[in-house]
Amino acid sequence: MASTSSGGIPNQAAGRKLPWSEVIAFVAIAVIVLAGVLAGVLAGASPQGILTNVGFYASIAIIFAVLALGFNLQWGYTGLFNAGIAGFYLIGAYTMAIAITAPSPPIVIGGIPVYPGHLGGYSLPLAVGAILAMLAAGGAAVIIALPALRLRADYLAIATLAFASILQILANNLQSVTGGAIGITGIPKPITFVSANAPFLNAITIVGIGSAILLLFLLLLQFMAESPWGRVLRAVREDEEATMALGKNTFNYKLQAFALGGALMGLAGALFAVTLGYVSPSSSFAPAVTFSVWVMVIVGGSGNNRGVIVGAFLIYGLEWLSVQLKDYVPIALAAGLPTIRLLLIVVGLIAVIAAGVFVLFSRYMPTRGWGRVLRKIQERGWVRNGTIGAFALYGLGWVFVFLEQYKPGAIGDTIFYTRLMFIGVLLIILIIYRPEGILREHKRVLR
Amino acid sequence: MAQDSGSQTSSPDRARSRWAALRPTARLRRQLVQASIFALILVAVIGGLSFVFGIIVLQYAMGGLVVSSIVIVAAIGLTVLYGIRGFANFAYGDLMTLGAYISLLLSVNGLSLVWGAIVSFFVLAVVGILLEVVIFSRLEGRGPVPPIVASVGVGLIIQNGIRSIAGTAEWLYPVPASQDIVIVPGLGIHPVRGILTLVIGVTFVLSAHILLKYTNLGKAMRATADNLELAKATGIDTKRVTYAAWVVSCSFASTAGVLLGLGTAITPTMGFDVILLIFAAVIVGGIGSPYGAMLGGLLVGLSQEMSVPFLVWLERPDVIGLQFGSAYKVAIPFIILIIVLIFRPWGIAGRRPAFARRSYFIERVTRALGGERGAIDASVGEANGGR
Amino acid sequence: MLLQAENLRSGYGEMEILHGVSMTLDQGEMVVLIGPNGAGKSTLIKTIFGLLRPTEGRVRFRDTDITGYHPRDLVIMGLGYVPQTNNTFPTLSVLENLEMGAITRRISPLPLHWNRGSDQRRTQSRMMKDAEIRERAMETVEMFPNLQPKLREHAGSLSGGEQQMVALAKSMMLDPEVLLIDEPSAGLAPKLVDTVFSKIVEINESGTGIVMVEQNAKKALAIADRGYVLETGRNRFAGTGEWLLHNADVGRLYLGGQA
Ligand SMILES: Nc1ncnc2c1ncn2[C@@H]1O[C@H](COP(=O)(O)OP(=O)(O)OP(=O)(O)O)[C@@H](O)[C@H]1O
Ligand SMILES: [Mg+2]
């Protein structure tokens, strides 16, 4: 088998060592959630609201994890680079919405059409809707793959990006099917609660169902990856010519992997429709979704199913946190601007002095005791990287302060957009320095 | 031998027979004929349509030409970089946006737009070199995907950096308002948005042609795009050629961005919104080929604009009653793109790879049905200038 | 000694292909490398020409240690290389291909010193203006009369034999002291092989030292001064062309039985 040359899936049994990077990732996720909760508390939200919010985080993170699994199957295992994740996601969400909602006729008030209505009103069971969503997205994946799969990776990327953007145009304009810019509302929940706690209970249900689905597909994918089928996929990724020479119809394997990945993305869309209760051609299906999923998979290590799930929780956690902070930070900044400025100055002075002392000290570092520890720290490049990182954060702090001073209130937006900039920076840094992902002890070259 | 070549004297008729070899060849003549047939067909189609549907078609064709000239400038920039660096730059649209905003920044601060555009032309050239040095040179030899990922990262940084600094509001260049110049009733063209854009577009096409065909740098660029390894082994300084490609690519992006901003409005997503149009032009023309990009840009721009009357016609209740028909005009280039990907992935102007002796489509079908192993697949990309 | 490779170890990535190969080339000599497919002949040439970096061993050109030099510097110093495949720029015309062959000695009309830099210090040869490069191209092409009418055609549209000629002509633009040629006869009809070989002999007789890889071992050995037989990345035999041609072992193993 051609795949023997490059190791298969990371061998869990071999790694007896504590997987430090994963431990750190879990701690980071916990910190993110706590920070979000804290921001909520400081902003004066009710405990119930905060819990619902955390539940919302978990359910969307699960949805992203499913997306990431789908993309991982396409790229991580088979080497098919999909730039239109948002498109398959959209198909899933709309299919689900059309399948399970009750009829919603057009609304006309005073002769003016307020709502154009949409296709559907079939009130199908949720499970049927989810299956239809998977079929629709998988079918779309087949259609887009037929012309593009044989070509180089860039063609596939461009074709899928084009596909996703056509779908957004359709969702916006094909009113009779999609409800136009307003979209489809009134998507039923899995269980209808009538208590005051309904939002929270809904979130919990979704988290429950979502985690079950996630677990199911994780196990399924792990199993398939170890099967002969999965081995052929990896062989295709490593060397398609050689695999072809072994008599495998690589095109069919690629098609299957791509379709299955697309179906998973459709499932994620279906979950999303149910979670939100409505779908609209908003930013939920913007290309930024695709790029976020890329980051999640790269962070988790492409080809590592467990890793990409952790990556999804981590990266979506950061996005979620930025939304929480978006509301809180401007308030805090406005209130404490002078204090914060003073703090920044003091911290900056201390940092500069500390760095200077360290540099001087490192020249004459003793070879024993603390000196050895310091030297080790220095040898690992932590000092340099740490200094760069600290200065970046420090600069960011000042940027915020100045922004708040000159454009009061704009800081919230800035946080929101710097979130996407952060995604961009992560993409670049990871692809250059850690293409194998940061949650992976195992080294494997990315294609 | 090289040392004395300059001093060698040759008899006049021997020299004549030597230089006779430089007269236009069959290929050149063939190309001229092809180009004029293409132009004739285009003119005939547009003329026929306008004869049937009225002068409005000409108006749309004019609009299409204007859009084309923007798309072509951008597509040349994108494809030159693709040819030499071997990856699709997804940040290209955002680089256009950056160019537009730099000119905007300068022109709202009192500089004239022309100077703003010139400054941003050079600023973006520097940005291009920085991108290569800081990011993309580290991804060399790792296939097409890592640079795509990094370029998306660059795009996100530019786009959202602009958003958080300049806000999401629409901006307009401070150019004096002027009326359309009416050529014949029903057919007008705006002096800035129309004529100036066309003129700049043509200027850029011509300068790209001169650069590629008549300068040594251009020849070296084409050689490097053809075959990087061989270029190195020939002694071409491929590093400098790469920088030159970034300079050309990014400065063209800047100008395309300014033209786009002139034509519509300046927003943080203006470039990203047209990136697929430009990709379509590049792929339709044959990825990596500047001349293909010109042809592709023309085709894509014209078809996008000229589809409007057709889509409006589709909107009529007695036809199919399509809602918001003209909103679909942006989908037209994608449809062309998909058709080209199915039937001629090497582009309409690209060279048909040697292996595709039979009809490419037939070969594809044979293989999909489990037929014998051809040589299509990944090699199509390679035949199109990739590596 | 003009060119000397000494105990080279080299390969692709982690995979070592050459396990210590040596060869030499004297002034004006023609040396042929033969061996079965995958023996590492192309790898050896690429390593000499700086396209691969040896992990061990030295390459010397005249008195200079050129191990690990960039190919560009080697071109400037007077080495030339014709790859096994893809050895022309397909979308450039034949004439432009030849012009590219002389790019390292071109004087830019602009004060940009586009392709010069430190080059002049390493070479005593004269730089050329564009017109001189043209002139030189015309002169070079006289050696290959069948290219004369095709100067303006894309190299990619020529036949395999013609492309081989273009590649040879391109590498002759600077009149290199050493020319490394990788399988010039690959994929050519037998008649064309003779034409190409006669060109190579002609080049050799004009004073250029030639290292040539060939599958057509008998024909190649017949025109070569000396030959090396490589096998699985090691030197196997070495000797004069004559000797190798009549050596029983070499004959049995590599020349197809009858010797
Ligand atoms: N680019 C490459 N990457 C990895 N391995 C390579 C590469 N090129 C060649 N090889 C391997 O190196 C070995 C020697 O190849 P090389 O091209 O030097 O052989 P050769 O003697 O020139 O053979 P041929 O007569 O077929 O040209 C082969 O086993 C081949 O698989
Ligand atoms: Mg070889």
Task: Give the number of helices of chain C.
Answer: 10
Report the oligomer. heterotrimer
Taking strands numbered 1, 2, ... along the chain, how are they ordered across the largest sheet of chain A?
1-2
Q: Low-confidence segments of chain A, ≥5 residues, pLDDT <50? A: 1-15, 441-447
Q: Would you identify the regions of chain C where 5 or more consecutive residues have pLDDT less than 50?
A: 114-121
Helices and strands of chain C: which structural class? alpha/beta
> What's the CATH class label of chain C?
Alpha Beta
Cα(first) to Cα(last) distance of chain A is 20 Å
If you compute it from the alpha carbons, what radius of gyration of chain C comes out, rounded to the nearest whole angstrom? 18 Å
CATH class of the largest domain in chain A, please?
Mainly Alpha
CATH superfamily of chain C: P-loop containing nucleotide triphosphate hydrolases
**Count of individual helical segments of chain A:** 15
**Number of individual domains of chain C:** 1
Whole-number total of structural domains of chain A: 2
Q: pLDDT average of chain C, as an integer?
A: 86
Strand order of the largest sheet of chain C: 6-7-8-3-9-10
Q: What does this entry look like structurally?
A:
The complex is a heterotrimer of chains A (447), B (387) and C (259). Chain A has 2 domains: 44-321, ABC transporter involved in vitamin B12 uptake, BtuC (Orthogonal Bundle); 330-406. The radius of gyration of chain A is 24 Å and the shape is globular. By secondary structure, chain A is mainly α. Chain A contains 15 helices and 2 strands. In chain A, β1 and β2 form a beta hairpin. Chain B has helices at residues 12-20, 26-53, 56-85, 92-108, 113-134, 145-166, 191-214, 216-226, 228-234, 238-263, 270-285, 290-315, 332-343, 360-368, 379-383, and strands at 181-184, 187-189. A two-stranded antiparallel sheet of chain B has the order 1-2. Chain B has a single domain, classed as Orthogonal Bundle (ABC transporter involved in vitamin B12 uptake, BtuC). Chain B is mainly α and 387 residues long. In chain B, α7 packs across α8. Chain C contains 10 helices and 10 strands. In chain C, α3 (94-101) packs parallel to α6 (160-172) and α6 packs parallel to α7. Chain C is globular. The model of chain C is unreliable at 114-121 (pLDDT under 50). The structure holds adenosine-5'-triphosphate and magnesium ion (MG). The site of magnesium ion (MG) has 6 residues of chain C, from α1.
